[in-house]
Amino acid sequence: KAGVTQTPRYLIKTRGQQVTLSCSPISGHRSVSWYQQTPGQGLQFLFEYFSETQRNKGNFPGRFSGRQFSNSRSEMNVSTLELGDSALYLCASSLTGNFETQYFGPGTRLLVL
Amino acid sequence: AQKVTQAQTEISVVEKEDVTLDCVYETRDTTYYLFWYKQPPSGELVFLIRRNSFDEQNEISGRYSWNFQKSTSSFNFTITASQVVDSAVYFCALSEAILGNEKLTFGTGTRLTIIP
Question: What is the model's pLDDT at position B58?
């Protein structure tokens, strides 16, 4: 079985731009959750999608949004980028969601200049 | 508000030694889940365990074991006979549902270095 894939792996943007990151879960998994990892704030949960619906949400501003498609692939969008959005963004897939037995992708490293 | 504390920022042990990583949590909920994750130098997170608040039995998986004690709000992780491949950052986490929204809160992580 193929693992979780994330694209792109690296990205450089400038302040004010927007960015879309993609995550393809393991085949058959219906849950995708997203995380942000920075040296200052550590690991933080962004949101979880299950069967195309946002099921759980962390404490991030509305600039961070996501969606999930019928094939379970998920995208995360960050609008009006700030320097502090520079981070490693990880996604995880799970069969049933709610953080049960998750499989993580390699992450997308975003640098905002 | 939920909180996870990993007081040990960095630990170094010689290969084959046992090592325990501490995790203390705070929550007002009676139903919650506790987790451990491993992040090796490659950066990819690895899920290790999920334990619900009603199951206080210790868990063992090969060289890994977890000790859950509600009385002290701790969920400690022990690696027996450590190996160089165990070198990684380990995160403890807690999830609880608030008004139907389940949130996952991570500790700051413990960097474990196994010295060959």
Answer: 87
What is the widest separation between alpha-carbon atoms in chain B?
48
Q: List pLDDT tens digits, range B7-24.
A: 999 999 999 999 999 999
Nearest Cα of chain B lies from the Cα of A54 at a distance, in angstroms, of: 10
Q: What is the CA radius of gyration of chain A?
A: 13
Calpha distance A39→B11 (Å, rounded): 19
B45/A100 Cβ within 8 A: no
Instruction: Provide the phi-psi class of A80: left if phi over 0, else alpha when psi is between -120 and 50, else beta.
Output: left
Nearest to B49 by CA among B68, B30, B72, B27: B68
User: B67 to chain A, minimum CA–CA distance in Å?
Assistant: 19
Nearest CA in chain A to B98: A56
Cα–Cα distance, B67 to B78 (Å, whole number): 8
Identify the H or E element spanning A103: strand A103-104
Q: What is the pLDDT of residues A53-82, one digit of tens each?
A: 999 999 999 999 999 999 999 999 999 999
Non-local CB neighbours of A13 within 8 Å, separated by 6+ positions: A19, A81, A110, A111, A112, A113
Separation of alpha carbons A57 and B101, rounded Å: 7
SS3 B72: helix
Is A90 in contact with B45 (Cβ distance < 8 A)?
yes
A25 touches chain B (CB under 8 A): no
